[in-house]
Design a protein that fits this description.
By secondary structure, this protein is an all-beta fold. The chain is 0% helix and 34% strand. The strands form four sheets. It has a two-stranded antiparallel ribbon with strand order 1-2. Strand 5 and strand 6 form a beta hairpin. 9% of the residues are buried.
Length: 106
């Protein structure tokens, strides 16, 4: 079995000003709505950097509950509580992360 998030009740999980690491540079997610392209990301199986195609981009509803994750370097990520986050122990919902979780980043 592969440890990956399920695509159930898909919805937008990031706020519009979230920067996305695309192959064309960092672009706000609100500027990617309705477009296709490629993002720099992590292969969840190997934990190695890779490129993945994106499409059907949408922003989070303005009434959605939003969490903020702050990384050790001071960067912040605003997302919905149910958004899956890849950690060194597998996928976890954003609202179930604890301080000792190691989030896999680029």
């Amino acid at each position: 079995m592969i440890d990956a998030p399920l695509k159930v009740n898909d919805h937008a999980c990031f706020v519009g000003d979230t920067l996305v690491n695309t192959t064309d540079g960092y672009i706000k997610i609100k500027d990617l709505v309705g477009k296709e392209g490629y993002v720099n990301t992590i292969n969840p199986d190997t934990k190695e950097k890779c490129v993945q195609k994106f499409s059907n981009v949408a922003m989070t509803d303005s009434n959605a509950e939003i969490l903020e994750i702050e990384f050790e370097n001071g960067e912040k990520l605003k997302l919905t509580p149910d958004h899956p986050i890849l950690t060194d122990s597998g996928w976890k919902r954003a609202d179930s992360l604890v301080e000792t979780d190691n989030i896999i980043t680029l």
